[in-house]
Amino acid sequence: MTRPAGWASKQPCNNDQLMANVLVTGATGFIGSNLVRALVARGDNVTCLVRKTSKVDRLRPLDVALVYGDVTDRENLSDAVSGNDVVYHVAGCITAVRKEQFYRINHEGTANIASACAEQAHPPVLVITSSLAAAGPEVDNRPRTETDPPAPVSHYGWSKRAGELAAQQQADRVPITIVRPAIVFGRADRMCLEIFKPIARFGVHMVPQVFSARFSLVNVVDLVELMILAARRGTRLAPPNTPEASRFSGYYFAACDEHPTYAELGRMIGRALGRRWVLTLPITTVGTWIAAAVSELTGRIRRKEMCVNLDKAKEITAGSWTCSSRAAAEEMGFAVGAPLIERLRQTVEWYRKEGWL
User: Considering only CA atoms, which of 276, 269, 262 is closest in space to residue 213?
Assistant: First the structure.
């Protein structure tokens, strides 16, 4: 079996230089747009794969090239990938009206990108943004590590895991590293904005009645730094059915070291907003499922993706979602740039500057 340069090593052979040719999928999204900014700042030549219907306003001021395509359409992906040293696959589906959409984008889309990379005469390093949801909630009351067998609980999590496995099929030709972020927040994030809004307006924080459950978070600035390190120094996925594959070599969790409960997170957000107090209102497990069912039904009627639905309720009620970034720290020198409370303050400042709060 032929193994690509950089496989199962910490130093790939072709992209540790200051400047590289890189392709970013999902460049118009929350994580993707922040990644593009960081790559441009470090001097990389950046190409963004965007759909013709995508809003590219945030990309136009940057010195990037745009190529039109869709990860679910294999036809033009090889041309988009060609000539790049690194491909950052960030495109994904977080919310969906129907579960099939998760698998079409997160599974088939990732498989398409990995195949397009494998078709190249000199395959690029492929860094895939997956999710903690692909691994599952914490194990034995401790944060998850990369060696824990995956146990997703939602269609979103299973679709991301399916994408990981599909990419690993190309690991004998393509140097691949997978990053699994915890809850991501920061500038340009609209999903976590919905947590900030009621605290900012009314001083109220709704808490699912799983009081002891803890959560890992990572600011998008720190996540982007880890992704760039993963391209330069990360261990690569081992081909299937090898001892290294069974030890989940080539996977990295992305999270800060703090694991607050959801109630504690609400109080921290309150401090970041400058509030003296935050009222936490508990929601029973039954209430969570009812709210999720109503939200999902509304979304299906309106054909609109909702942040809270039955699939998300599976994750909310599954217990603690914590993970450790120790492997990334030890193998790549990763470290978060600021404590969680400071990252929350920075997020509040950005929201206010942009008029989102």
Answer: 262
pLDDT given for residue 316 in this prediction: 83
Q: Name beta bridge partners: 21.
A: 45
- Region 283-287: mean pLDDT is 79
Around Cβ 285, how many Cβ atoms within 10 Å? Answer: 13
How many other CB atoms are there within 10 angstroms of residue 137's CB atom?
20
CB-based contacts of 294: which residues, under 8 Å, 6+ apart? Answer: none
Q: What is the pLDDT of residue 305?
A: 65
Structure token digits, residue 179: 């990053």
CATH T-level assignment (fold) for domain 21-184+217-257+321-337: Rossmann fold (3.40.50)
Residue 191 token pair: 């999903």
Cβ contact 175:236 at 8 Å:
yes
Question: What is the identity of the amino acid at 217?
Answer: L
- What is the DSSP secondary-structure string of 130-188? --GGGT-S-BTTB-B-TTSPP---SHHHHHHHHHHHHHHTTTTTS-EEEEEE-EEESTT
Report residue 209's pLDDT band, with 50, 70 and 90 as the boundaries: low
* pLDDT confidence bin for 210, thresholds 50/70/90: low
pLDDT band at 11 (very low <50, low <70, confident <90, very high): very low
Count of other CB atoms within 10 angstroms of residue 187: 19
- The stretch 226-236 carries a mean pLDDT of 97
Question: What is the pLDDT at residue 235?
Answer: 96
- In this structure, how many other beta carbons lie within 10 angstroms of the beta carbon of residue 58? 16
| pTM, rounded to two decimals | 0.91
DSSP per-residue letters across 78-100: HHHHTT-SEEEE----SS-SSHH
- Range list of H helices, the chain: 30-41, 77-81, 99-102, 110-118, 155-168, 193-202, 220-233, 243-246, 262-273, 285-302, 310-316, 326-332, 340-353
If phi > 0 it is left, if psi is from -120 to 50 it is alpha, else beta; for residue 45 that is beta
d(CA 269, CA 115): 42
Domain residue extents for the chain: 21-184+217-257+321-337, 193-213+259-316
